[in-house]
Design a protein that fits this description.
10-stranded mixed sheet, alpha/beta, Jelly Rolls, Alkaline Phosphatase, subunit A, 12 helices, Arylsulfatase, C-terminal domain, 26 strands, about 25% strand, 6-stranded mixed sheet
């Protein structure tokens, strides 16, 4: 029924010990004396145009605008079209396909636990590590932040509040239920304020070690639950299309967000801006601003169409409106304020850049796709920055498909294929843009430069074969191990052809039973008007029980499972239909005497 070998960590114990003792520079930027602190700030669904410093005249972001003036700005910075892939690349320095992350839900956004995060490298080098906000790379062991190098964790589950992964009653942006070092607790206040207060406590801690604080807001992601005080500031503000610069691609009126929704997004961003100001003030008050690297970026383009600096497309597309985002890095005394770097850079570059800045070596045997940006950020006169092609791809599905919904981007040229609109299945034609002359991707040159198209597509296929070589077997959730008990499985991570978030959906979970023994599985159910039957199946063993009308829970006790991988199937049958439970909770029972 169940069998297999336990997974192994890439970062071996010997390597960790060596890192803990290493103090010398590996990549040439070891600061004198104490290593710098790092604050990495990322927002969710905030587009290129959702900041004042990119020419938005209506949004209020005074703290981010000040940070831009005090920072080096990387003007040509790209990420994945959606959030989980960006987060995987940001934290590992590797293309997301290598990590097992291909999508944002249905088990496709769980990162393989043998990936090495930057927290797993900085921690052994003497850093305190903390994450505050959105993780979105796995809700269960061994994929949680506290399993992947973060010593302090205050995060939402899944991809955002208001999704199936949230505990009952914790769906809203105010007074949310959050994972606090692996335990669920309700907090009072607005989510972004809560994360920032926890991050401020972290950086203020009386501890001589340097710190790495990852502040990952889930705003302004939907649902658009804006804080009332900030929302009131946009009452009466003109948010019609005519109030914004008419650049590049005009926002299509058919798909344009309503003024009310834009006001909510802008209120959420202004709240983020206020919190960024609070955090920067805390660094000043502790007297460590000059010793702290601060990075700000967003995870993808806007989820809905609104002013985006004239860029084409939005979240989910391989056009620049979906992948080009703000990127600021401030390091007082080390990096010249106000400098603009125009070289192409991406999420995969942050990991090696921070390691070089912190003077921490890359672990032996660990390969990354990114390149340290430090020579560009410092403005080294003799830097020889080689031409390179970066690749970005995303579409729904359990595994990526070659040639679908991708782009290949050099400093000057961009080869792109958009996703086919449903229900079409034929791949749209390839498009080619000269970004040096056409930053808004308005003039397709594919017919005029077929040889360039051919070469760039060939380069893409080589990349695709490389980054998908490991395959996409499901990433499994540990059950019954020492890291997590009980284990709550939600619709965020189930799989199958009927899997989804609607009441009528049905799925299954791929699990790894860590320790053989006796287990109990609790179902949480949507009540049904008629009698139903609950079913549980794993391997060749199935159990069932009858339920009365209106039942909201049931329990299967004393299930004996061997160790190893298995597929856990659970469903409710009644009135000729089958649906899945809202979620299930698995307890490992004490061994019988």
């Amino acid at each position: 029924m169940l069998g297999g070998r336990p997974r192994q960590r890439i970062l071996a114990a010997a390597t960790v010990a060596a890192l803990a003792l290493t103090r010398g520079p590996a990549l040439g930027s070891q600061p004198e004396g104490r290593r710098p602190n790092v604050v990495l700030i990322m927002t969710d669904d905030q587009g290129y145009g959702d900041v004042g410093f990119h020419g938005n005249p209506q949004i209020r972001t005074p703290n981010l605008d000040r940070l831009a003036r005090e920072s080096v700005r990387v003007a040509n910075f790209c990420v994945s079209p959606v959030c989980s892939p960006t987060r995987a690349s940001l934290l590992t320095g590797r293309y997301n396909y290598r990590t097992g992350v291909v999508d944002t839900y249905l088990g496709r956004s769980m990162m393989r636990s043998d990936e090495t995060t930057i927290a797993e490298v900085l921690g052994p080098a003497g850093y305190r590590t903390g994450i505050f906000g959105k993780w979105h790379l796995g809700d269960n062991a061994p994929m949680r932040p506290i399993d992947q190098g973060f010593q302090r964790e205050l995060v939402i589950k899944g991809g955002g509040l208001g999704q199936p992964s949230n505990p009952p009653g914790g769906e809203h942006y105010s007074n949310p239920i959050l994972e606090d070092d692996g335990r669920a607790h309700r907090f009072q206040g607005y989510c972004s304020d809560i994360y920032t207060s926890a991050a401020i406590d972290f950086v203020r801690a009386k501890d001589d070690r340097p710190f790495f604080a990852y502040l990952a807001f889930n705003c302004p992601h939907e649902p658009l639950e804006a804080p009332p005080a900030e929302l009131a500031r946009y009452a009466g503000v003109d948010l019609s299309a005519s109030a914004f610069p008419q650049l590049g691609h005009p926002v299509p009126e058919t798909f344009r967000s309503s003024n009310e929704d834009i006001a909510r997004v802008y209120a959420m961003v202004t709240n983020i801006d206020t919190n960024v100001g609070r955090l920067l003030k805390a660094l000043d008050e502790r007297g460590i601003a000059r010793d702290t690297i601060v990075i700000f970026l967003t995870d993808n383009g806007p989820a809905r169409f609104r002013f985006n600096g004239g860029l084409r497309g939005a979240k989910g597309t391989p056009y620049d409106g979906g992948i080009r985002v703000p990127f600021l890095i401030r390091w007082p005394g080390r990096l010249e304020p106000g400098r603009v770097v125009d070289r192409l850079a991406a999420h995969i570059d942050v990991f090696p850049t921070l390691l070089e800045a912190c003077g921490v070596p890359l672990p032996a045997g660990l390969e990354v796709d990114g390149k340290s940006l430090m020579p560009l950020l410092r403005g080294d006169a003799d830097v020889a920055w080689p031409e390179r092609t970066l690749f970005f791809q995303w579409h729904r599905g359990d595994a990526p498909e070659p040639g679908r919904a991708f782009c290949a981007r050099t400093q000057r040229y961009k080869l792109v294929r958009r996703e086919a609109p449903p229900p079409a299945t034929k791949l749209p034609p390839l498009e080619l843009y000269d970004l040096a002359a056409d930053r808004y991707e308005e003039h397709d040159l594919a017919a005029k430069q077929p040889e360039r198209v051919k070469q760039m597509y060939a380069d893409y296929l080589v990349w695709f074969k490389d980054v998908t070589a490991r395959g996409f077997d499901p990433v499994r959730i540990d059950v019954g191990g020492p890291l997590e008990d009980p284990t709550v499985l939600t619709r965020q991570d189930w799989r199958g052809p009927r899997a989804g978030w609607k009441p009528e959906n049905l799925g299954y979970w791929e699990i790894q039973v860590v320790r053989a023994g006796h287990y109990q599985v609790d179902f949480r159910l949507a009540p049904r008007r008629l009698p139903t039957v609950a079913h549980l199946k794993i391997g060749g063993v199935e159990r069932s029980m009858s339920l009365e009308p209106g039942a909201t829970a049931c329990k299967f006790s004393d299930l004996e499972w061997p160790a190893g991988p298995g597929r856990l199937e659970t469903w409710i049958e009644g009135n000729g239909n089958t649906v899945g439970p809202l979620d299930v909770t698995i307890h490992r029972l004490a061994e019988k005497p």
